[in-house]
């Protein structure tokens, strides 16, 4: 984009930001300052890349410095910042990433189907994916009349810590593998999808599919959903490298990395809740209505917070 066109497209916005910054000296609004500062620094990064010695770059740099001082003077306490992050910033990030979230879900769903079909046509496939030790233990539990007894085989506290940390590790690994131009993230999604599909077929083959669903998906609804969303974070990073658009590849990568990291961090509470459910609730013998209620509540939360609420919030912001 030519410098003159860049200035023409954004000059009104910069004037409005400059006026808002001056007004903030007497009537501070930290949320507005943060939003304007992010918008301005994006433009500054673009100007530094394409017009490093231009007057517009020096102007934006000075305005950004002025806004930074205002933020330092008027910043709210950490508790308010955390609330703002969960209530506004993170959902708006998800809205920007819905297309990649759909791609992540598609990859995972196709992998699940392939895992199911592979297990149905190859008796050794489940052992290849899940391991002989797990399959033999589960077969033994089925003989004892407790096919999912694995969830009651360990102390709740240590199980909670171990599972939660492992889930967070898998999530961040899925995100970080996006650095391999998205292919690493896609491979992680594919592997986990194949594992889930073959796992569910293993129980279906033995007439225990409904029992497994009502037991496993008490925690699996949040856990699996979070892995798919972590895949979205990884694809965000990978696509920032593959498709930088009007930004330089480095600027695009920094933007994608920051956005993807925020999404990955935002999943930590989901994994904590999923770990709690798996460690303390899944092991219990619950009435199917209770199990179904927990699964429905978990699915409803995922759909609301990651799909519907971001859309509603985005419409209210852009109107």
From TrEMBL:
Keyword Membrane included in the entry's annotation: yes
Top-level taxon: Bacteria
Keywords attached to this entry: Membrane, Transmembrane, Transmembrane helix
Transmembrane segments: 100-119, 175-194, 224-243, 263-282, 288-309
One of the Pfam families matching this protein, by short name: SpoIIM
Listed InterPro entries: SpoIIM-like
Keyword Endoplasmic reticulum: no
PANTHER family: SLR1478 PROTEIN
Listed name of the protein: Stage II sporulation protein M
Source species: Spirosoma montaniterrae
Lineage: Bacteria, Pseudomonadati, Bacteroidota, Cytophagia, Cytophagales
């Amino acid at each position: 984009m030519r410098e003159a066109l860049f200035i023409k497209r954004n000059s009104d916005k910069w004037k409005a930001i400059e006026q808002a910054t001056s007004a903030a000296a007497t009537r501070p609004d930290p949320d507005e300052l943060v939003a304007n500062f992010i918008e301005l620094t994006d433009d500054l990064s673009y100007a530094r890349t394409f017009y490093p010695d231009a007057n517009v770059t020096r102007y934006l740099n000075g305005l950004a410095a002025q806004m930074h001082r205002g933020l330092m003077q008027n910043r709210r306490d950490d508790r308010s910042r955390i609330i703002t992050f969960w209530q506004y910033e993170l959902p708006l990030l998800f809205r920007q990433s819905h297309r990649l979230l759909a791609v992540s879900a598609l990859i995972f769903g196709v992998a699940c189907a392939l895992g199911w079909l592979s297990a149905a046509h190859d008796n050794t496939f489940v052992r290849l994916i899940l391991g002989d030790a797990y399959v033999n233990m589960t077969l033994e539990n089925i003989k004892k009349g407790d096919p999912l007894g694995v969830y009651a085989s360990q102390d709740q506290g240590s199980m909670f810590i171990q599972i939660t940390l492992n889930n967070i590790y898998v999530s961040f690994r899925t995100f970080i593998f996006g650095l391999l131009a998205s292919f690493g993230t896609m491979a992680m999604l594919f592997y986990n999808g194949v594992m889930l599909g073959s796992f569910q077929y293993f129980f279906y083959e033995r007439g225990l599919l409904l029992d497994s669903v009502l037991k496993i998906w008490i925690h699996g609804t949040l856990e699996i959903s979070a892995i798919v969303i972590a895949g979205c974070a990884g694809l965000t990073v990978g696509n920032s490298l593959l498709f930088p658009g009007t930004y330089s590849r480095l600027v695009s990568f920094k933007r994608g990395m920051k956005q993807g990291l925020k999404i990955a961090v935002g999943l930590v509470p989901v994994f904590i809740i999923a770990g709690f459910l798996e460690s303390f609730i899944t092991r219990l013998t619950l009435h199917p209505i209770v199990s179904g209620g927990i699964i429905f509540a978990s699915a409803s939360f995922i759909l609301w917070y990651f799909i519907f609420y971001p859309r509603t919030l985005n419409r209210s912001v852009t109107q």
